[in-house]
């Protein structure tokens, strides 16, 4: 009788140990699978980030063209806290026009100034695009990231800085034409209207762009020219099958 109880007890003990071993084995297997999933996700993320970095690097120092747009000289700023924070631009509700307030400077000069802020750290400033005195268009920041240009409207607008030959802030013909073409193309691309194109002045009251704050008639004419350009872009893209 006693022997039978001992045997049953040993069998129960053996069964318990077996169940414990199975539980431990399952826990270990689950841990291995979980670790594998985590490592896989990290690998995928790393590969994706490297591809994005490679794509961005490939855009640097390239001249690219799109139907209806002026030629873009893509010279993206390095990501840094002072001119290109790398913050995503979740939505685009408008386009803000600026002037450089540095008479006679080129688009390259202004782009390089933005780039240099990562070292000088004197202020936070940048723009998505800079248009030069010869009508050249330099892109400094991707259109899916914010720039430091338009204060509280940084989060939902694209910015365009324009060079000018003198203190009046009046854009010469080459700069003006590229501005009209770029603005019209951006409006068509992001489903905007000329009413969505504003001056820095309309955001903060700052006299920028100077000539087009002091001459409302010139600003109204610019918006009319943008309306015409939007139609031209739509026509060109339709003909190109885009």
UniProtKB/TrEMBL annotation:
Signal sequence range: none
Protein's UniProt keywords contain Disulfide bond: no
InterPro entries named among the record's database cross-references: Amidase/PGRP_sf, Amidase_domain, NAMLAA_amidase_2
Superkingdom to which the source organism belongs: Bacteria
Catalytic activity: Hydrolyzes the link between N-acetylmuramoyl residues and L-amino acid residues in certain cell-wall glycopeptides
Presence of keyword Methyltransferase: no
Protein name, UniProt field: N-acetylmuramoyl-L-alanine amidase
Natural source organism: Lactonifactor longoviformis DSM 17459
